[in-house]
Amino acid sequence: MEQRYATNPAQVPGMTTADLRAHYLVPDLFAPGEIRTVYTHHDRIVLGGAVPAGGSLSLGGYPEIRSDHFLEHREVGIVNVGGTGTVTADGVDYEMVKGACLYLGRGIRDVSFADEGDAGAHFYLFSAPAHTAYPAALVSPGEGTVRELGDQLTSNRRTLNQYIHENGVKSCQVVMGVTELHPGSMWNTMPAHTHDRRTECYLYFDVPEDARVIHLLGEREETRHLVVGDRQAIISPSWSLHSGVGTASYSFVWAMAGENQAFDDMDAAPVTDLR
């Protein structure tokens, strides 16, 4: 489990591109036949990627979280960003198509991932500490709360699927969903925003091989950017704005953990305020 320590806004102005990438970009979560994990001290979130590649992978405990099994003191949201695969939790099988979301609560002991090999399932994990247990729940694409946002005239027409949230699948603190940009739209959100009460992570996917997303971060008076490719993740601390524009349309998994679960609890950063 890779460790990422917390940072503060005063560090950003002196960071090089390499520094920014080392702190906030997770470029290699997915590797065939492996489960890879990254622990960030921002709200003690764990990001993970599981690629069964025709076999089966078991999610175990890690010394960094001091637990006998991964969900002993945690909960996890899982989104499949690849082909169809299966997650098994304490003997119950959940078949997940691309874009489906599975919530697993605190206390589940045995979690494994599998696919048929040619299916190419890629499971993305977002986990946070949990102090109570909620039932497991699987949501297929389009079955959550669907919100149509943005406008084609401003290049940000998008479909937002809310899966784990205060009016959907119940959790202790994880909020999670998937946003798909419509063809011809590139901005995932604008104006950008912050929410001092939650850390948010993005996983960009369905980014064409020859395309990239320019992700904005930092404070509104001191912005920086990262160039992000397909199936790469961004850690966005609570004080950092987050927005991005691609050279082509794409999708992304957004997930948050922190003080509350109110999706609209955000502080907008108008375009005219950005520096």
Automatic annotation (TrEMBL):
<dbReference type="InterPro" id="IPR021120">
    <property type="entry name" value="KduI/IolB_isomerase"/>
</dbReference>
<feature type="binding site">
    <location>
        <position position="195"/>
    </location>
    <ligand>
        <name>Zn(2+)</name>
    </ligand>
</feature>
<dbReference type="InterPro" id="IPR027449">
    <property type="entry name" value="KduI_N"/>
</dbReference>
<dbReference type="GO" id="GO:0019698">
    <property type="term" value="P:D-galacturonate catabolic process"/>
</dbReference>
<comment type="function">
    <text>Catalyzes the isomerization of 5-dehydro-4-deoxy-D-glucuronate to 3-deoxy-D-glycero-2,5-hexodiulosonate.</text>
</comment>
<keyword id="KW-0862">Zinc</keyword>
<keyword id="KW-0479">Metal-binding</keyword>
<feature type="binding site">
    <location>
        <position position="242"/>
    </location>
    <ligand>
        <name>Zn(2+)</name>
    </ligand>
</feature>
<protein>
    <recommendedName>
        <fullName>4-deoxy-L-threo-5-hexosulose-uronate ketol-isomerase</fullName>
        <ecNumber>5.3.1.17</ecNumber>
    </recommendedName>
</protein>
<dbReference type="GO" id="GO:0008270">
    <property type="term" value="F:zinc ion binding"/>
</dbReference>
<feature type="binding site">
    <location>
        <position position="193"/>
    </location>
    <ligand>
        <name>Zn(2+)</name>
    </ligand>
</feature>
<dbReference type="InterPro" id="IPR014710">
    <property type="entry name" value="RmlC-like_jellyroll"/>
</dbReference>
<dbReference type="Pfam" id="PF04962">
    <property type="entry name" value="KduI"/>
</dbReference>
<dbReference type="InterPro" id="IPR011051">
    <property type="entry name" value="RmlC_Cupin_sf"/>
</dbReference>
<keyword id="KW-0413">Isomerase</keyword>
<dbReference type="GO" id="GO:0045490">
    <property type="term" value="P:pectin catabolic process"/>
</dbReference>
<dbReference type="GO" id="GO:0008697">
    <property type="term" value="F:4-deoxy-L-threo-5-hexosulose-uronate ketol-isomerase activity"/>
</dbReference>
<dbReference type="InterPro" id="IPR007045">
    <property type="entry name" value="KduI"/>
</dbReference>
<comment type="similarity">
    <text>Belongs to the KduI family.</text>
</comment>
<dbReference type="GO" id="GO:0042840">
    <property type="term" value="P:D-glucuronate catabolic process"/>
</dbReference>
<comment type="pathway">
    <text>Glycan metabolism; pectin degradation; 2-dehydro-3-deoxy-D-gluconate from pectin: step 4/5.</text>
</comment>
<feature type="binding site">
    <location>
        <position position="200"/>
    </location>
    <ligand>
        <name>Zn(2+)</name>
    </ligand>
</feature>
